[in-house]
Design a protein that fits this description.
Keywords: mRNA processing, mRNA splicing, Nucleus. Its main location: nucleus. Helices cover 64% and strands 0% of the residues. It is an all-alpha fold and 507 residues long. Among the domains are: 159 residues, Alpha Horseshoe (Serine Threonine Protein Phosphatase 5, Tetratricopeptide repeat), CATH 1.25.40; 169 residues, Alpha Horseshoe (Serine Threonine Protein Phosphatase 5, Tetratricopeptide repeat), CATH 1.25.40. The N terminus is likely disordered.
Length: 507
Amino acid sequence: MYRRIGNEENRQNRDKTSKEKNAVEEEPKAKKEPVDVLRTRTGGAYIPPAKLRMMQDQITDKESEQYQRMNWERLKKKIHGLVNKVNTGNLVSVVRSLLQENIIRGKGLLVRSIIQAQAFSPVFSHVYAAFVAVINSKFPHIGELLLRRLIVQFKRSFRRNDKGTTVTVSKFIAHLINQRVAHEVLALEIMILMMETPTDDSVEVSIAFLKECGAKLLEVSPRALDTVFTRLRGILQDGDSTNLDKRVQYMIEVVMTIRKDQFKAYPAVIEELDLIDEEDQITHTISLEDAVNPENELSGIGTTSGTTEIIDNTEQNLVAFRREVYLTIQSSLDFQEAAHKLLKMKVSKELEAELCHMLVDCCCQQRTYERFYGLLCERFCRLRKEYQTTFEKIACDTYATIHRFDITKLRNMARLISHLLFTDAINWTIFTDVRLTENDTTSSGRIYLKYIFQELCESMGLAKLYERISDPTLQTAFAGLFPRDNPQNTRFAINFFTLTGLGGLTR
């Protein structure tokens, strides 16, 4: 009995000691602060996209640091994933997906992801260069930032004698030169630097670089390329005296053979990656001697405070405005009701010109001319001087691009302009830039002028039209329509008006 009581007491003592020990161990754990996974260098533990969106939805303050940090992490993962997917077949679709993200804010992330992806796969340098070329044509500051970082990385690896990194970076720069993102002067500077004091590594780097962009240099700067190969030939001849490795000497002979073959085995840009027209590309001229700023701070998160400005680059607001104008016009019984409804919309000054263009477009899209649109445009011209000026500019621009109009659209436009001229809603000075000669007009332009003056003659009568043309204050406007500087031009204008039944205007 005593033994049983003793065992019971021992068990209770052991349980008490164990509980005290666990309490002591749990006390420091409770005091340990939780780690914010979003503040770690790598972004912390993986957070599924659905959970990340849920966490963002729970935050009411969209300008708080926590919300912006979550948004930054989402942007970083999205950009990194898209860059890693790039290949020859899906390059265009990846760029389209990338443009849906805020790459202006995340340009540092984008540039870093591209450089890292190219460093891991140098064999795809030409693909990443084409990817950069497309982005550079739309956002040149991103292409310039990437080029600056590559130059800084190239100079750093060259000073450290890091041959592997130098070769990788130089290949990327070479393909950026092929894509006209970087100027060819940069290639010549790299070649001069590599061969200034030739070593096995420097000559090997220069040859690898020359293979990638030699075809481009042969196209744009053949004399400079001759200078480079003259220097290589001199290095090869002095190879024994400079203790140049036999393997490197053989590499020089190989690249000379490639040059004799016009670099056919190493084209500058393959057909699948030639995506940007030469006139659309923006070339950056950055020298190795320039003190460039890599702007490494752009790769880190930056919070913004105050009002967040949203720029509508998709023109969704403009499309919605045009739709509202169209529906307003279609639901109106007459031009007065349409004008009243459009004025009630309180159109902003930025959209006033778009309203005028929309009225003209609606008129031109009709199967036949409707006087409704002429009266509506006339009403707006009389309301404010700004509307009148806009319609006058539309009339001038239309004549310059009239060759793009089909015959129905051309006829409707001519009748609209003739109505505005007849009612003096716009000034007759719109004819100032018109020059009625054989060389300065097209067939579409002559048909357009014929319709305008025939409509004016029908509305005003030939006598009043002739009186308007003879107005001394408008002689500058009609000097091109009735040229007197050359007998041949005068004869052409007389024949034009005579054949259109308006010979009375040439008296």
